[in-house]
Design goal:
- With 251 residues, the chain is of the alpha/beta class.
- 37% of the residues lie in helices and 16% in strands.
- The longest helix is centred in the last third of the chain and has 19 residues, at 203-221.
- The termini are far apart.
- Bound molecules: 6-{[(1R,3S)-3-phenylcyclopentyl]amino}pyridine-3-carboxamide (58G).
Amino acid sequence: MQFDVITLFPEMVLQAASHGVTGKALETNLASINVWNPRDYVIDKHKTVDDRPYGGGPGMVMKYQPLHDALTDAKKKHLARESSKVIYLSPQGKVITQQVLSEALNLSQIILVAGRYEGIDERFIMLDCDEEWSLGDYVISGGELAALIVIDAMLRLIPGVLGDSESALYDSHSDGLLDYPHYTRPETIAALTVPTVLTSGHHADIDRWRHKQALGRTWQKRPDLLKNKQLNAEQKNLLNEFILESNPIKV
Ligand code: 58G
């Protein structure tokens, strides 16, 4: 997977991605990140990447030409030229989910456009971008953090990036459910003791308990996720048990 990020702050993207799981994936060439700074592509005599908005109002808008020329170079760098998409990150985009990200894994190049100021010239979105993605209904000061989130979440899905033990198969949301609770030593903290099943050594019981917790917590905290999910007979049974235990009828 080749990621190309068009950004006025290339060091921010490379620096942040160099740590931990993403850093390892890049070191081992399971993926690569190239950065392209529109500032390196300014040709006008004022050397500016931004300009005042037509119609007036506060703030500045990123100009079309430096973005377009940076994008042209990013596309040229993708030698395989298999399947490539240009994605602008903004609050106007389609909200990304684990599903959206895993579908994008079949691409060989993803070019992420990180805006700054009040945003970018609308014609760059119309003419040069294939899709517009959003993290959710809030505004951040630059698209770099959004690009880093997309890269991080996608890298976790590439086979070999996570070890077997940390496999993304076990991640929250990979099966449309929230995660089960985790505990480590000590066994008791402020009168809260680790559920006994986890110290029992019965692996089948532990798996069953964790699956039940994942279903139950999704039902408690994100019931909207269950509306779009078909539960099998065993899952219905586990969730019923959880519900009965969480709301016992007292006699
Ligand atoms: C308002 C809206 C001002 C992505 C957008 C400026 C990017 C949120 C998201 C913008 C982003 C998200 C410039 C800074 C886009 C441009 C960028 N904010 N929800 N901000 O994914």
